[in-house]
Amino acid sequence: MLTINDVRKTFFAGTVNERVALDGVSLTVEPGDFVTVIGSNGAGKSTMLNTVSGTIIPDSGSIQVSGEPVTKLREHQKAHWISRVFQDPMKGSSPNLTIEQNMAIASRRGKSRGLSMGVTRPRKQQFRDELAKLELGLENRLGAKVGLLSGGQRQALSLLMATFSSPEILLLDEHTAALDPQRAKHVTELTERMVAEQKLTTIMVTHNMEQALRLGNRLIMMHEGKILFELNQEQKAGSSVADLLSEFQKLQTVSGEPTLDDATLLETVRVTEEGKP
């Protein structure tokens, strides 16, 4: 389904600010795989998603989707295959358009777009049916502008819109990180259900190590632009957050530098505290 082969990306090459973001990343994602990605800030997680989505063109290496070379294609050219949900709930939809208008656009992802084709009476009923699955009452607010929704509602809508056209690859870039715990839990549950129901091939970047272990059938850890190790489904089931923290600590021992950023540490502490009796 998705093949990333020896992809490299350096920012500000040849300057004092030179930074190697991806250092020979290779990854094969099979149809139906749900890969979770962990690593501290600067590990290359989002940069890898950016090269897959076409937001960033890699310096070298190759990317294929279903055997088709897509390395040099821009984001809009990959929209037929790839859909993405960002960390910021504001990025996945247009605040000045209504819910039904946003959904109409999403339904035309990768195709010629036009609202007139998307807001017919049958389409409105389809939108209501899909929105009802979110269990947020949005099916009764088709005419409401998206900018009036809460962050949790908007992120749930963004997730629905991203899966609306059944993309070949779904990219989730810390899509629950900006939400409060209750709404993050709801969006996580929606994610798990939608991916399973549609059998979507998915890559999810997260700071939440418990989430990374619980969701999906594969887990990879990145550090300094490289994939350091991978756990398959059986290995994930037999691992704990403490095991992942141990791997980070091993890296810190070798490099002498902190390998966990504040966001990861705070998320780990929060999840650990919530799990206490």
Automatic annotation (TrEMBL):
Major subcellular site: membrane
UniProt keywords, alphabetically: ATP-binding, Cell membrane, Membrane, Nucleotide-binding, Transport
Superkingdom assignment: Bacteria
SMART domains membership: AAA (SM00382)
Transmembrane segments: none
Residues annotated as domain ABC transporter: 2-249
Pfam families noted in UniProt: ABC_tran (PF00005)
PANTHER family in UniProt: NITRATE ABC TRANSPORTER ATP-BINDING PROTEIN, TAURINE IMPORT ATP-BINDING PROTEIN-RELATED
Designated name of the protein: ABC transporter ATP-binding protein
